[in-house]
Design a protein that fits this description.
Blueprint lengths: L3 H97 L5 H14 L5 E5 L10 H11 L2 E4 L9 E6 L5 E5 H20 L1
Parallel strand pairs: 1-2
Antiparallel strand pairs: 1-3, 3-4
Helix pairs in contact: 1-4, 2-3
Amino acid sequence: MPLPDQVSLLCRAIREKGRKEAGEILSRAREQADRILLEARENTQRDFEERVSQERQSAYQHAQQVVSAAELKAGKQVMVTRQALLREVFDKAEKRLSVLRNEPGYPNVLRLLAIHAVSSLPEEHCWIQVRKSDQDLFSQDMIMDLSKETGQTVALLPEPVDINGGCLAFSANKKILVDFSFDALLKRAEPRLKELMANIQK
């Protein structure tokens, strides 16, 4: 039978062992709890970052859609404005040309247009055709002057043409037409005018 001191020592040893094991268990439990807590924090942080990232991406996409819609609307408005401006410019040009027909300088303008038209034809003989009210401007002297300046034999077609001013020039067989009427001149100027307006808007 153990002695009282030995029993006491044995009890103390058992308690020490129990305390040590309990300490180890607690230590392991704390480590595990810390690990679980750290993982939970990391998962929470990751979830939060993913949610923030998704929300940012969603907000960015929405902003892009708003910007794209605004740009499209602005582009359409610019196109409408350009068309309106182009129409206004052409209306003013048509009015100016209409007024020009009644000004003293019109016969000279008509003469210059006729020279350009005739010079554009490849043949040596050609016809000039003008509106009824302009036929009187093409006197025999003016026809001779045109022939001299262009190096071509020019003749005036007796039939008037329904144009708003300017002239038409035909080859001798009337298969080639050069249109120097005011309408044609405006139409030919349109692409250049559109290009200029496009550059102004940039």
